[in-house]
Design brief:
Elements: E1 4-9, H1 13-22, E2 27-32, H2 43-58, E3 62-71, E4 78-79, H3 82-96, E5 105-115, E6 123-133, E7 148-150, H4 162-168, H5 170-186
Helix pairs in contact: 4-5
Bound molecules: inosine 5'-triphosphate and magnesium ion.
The site of inosine 5'-triphosphate has 20 residues, from strand 3 and helix 3.
Amino acid sequence: MALRKLTFVTGNVNKLREMQELLHGIVDLHNTPVDLEEIQGSTQEVAIAKCRQAAAIIGGPVITEDVGLGFNAMNGLPGAYIKWFLKELKPAGLHKMLAGFEDKSGFAVCTVAYCAGPNHEPILFEGIHHGTIVEPRGPQVFGWNPVFQPDGHSETYAEMSDELKNKCSHRFLAVEKLKAFLSEQRD
Ligand SMILES: O=P(O)(O)OP(=O)(O)OP(=O)(O)OC[C@H]1O[C@@H](n2cnc3c(O)ncnc32)[C@H](O)[C@@H]1O
Ligand SMILES: [Mg+2]
């Protein structure tokens, strides 16, 4: 059976690389590198608005993704706004944000949105990975990977191989739900 074609609309090449690995052999994944406009709101609201825009641009089935990194000491902030904090503070600055707090715990959230096409409602698949915000360790290749050490692991995301990160990450957890949904649709 031919693989279902889906377009992943993202301007982030690292997200694309991980998503291609996660959906390998399951979906015929194409990319349109548009940096979609992001509204203010909860991660769910941001994800729905992004996916609607993407479906309108592509005119067919799409997925989009919105990622947040939340600090429990700050009731989940920066959350969906992590991109702007990371841009200005760099990973080391993210860790320093928690200097005045005892609680260094945090969580990575990946909200994958699927939309069958224009005029369809986006459907959300959320993966949450809990961990600790640490001093940066590992190569600075992708986002805030050097400061996030997931619970039960001694490495940060940046110190993990792509393979290991893809077996446990927020993105893996969200994509597992997307895969279950796509396979139900086939039956
Ligand atoms: O085009 P889109 O898909 O929106 O890509 P983006 O880079 O704008 O991504 P987001 O809006 O989701 O912003 C999330 C920020 O978190 C970073 N990020 C996303 N996934 C990550 C991951 O798995 N590990 C580390 N950093 C990540 C990403 O580089 C951004 O700075
Ligand atoms: Mg974005």
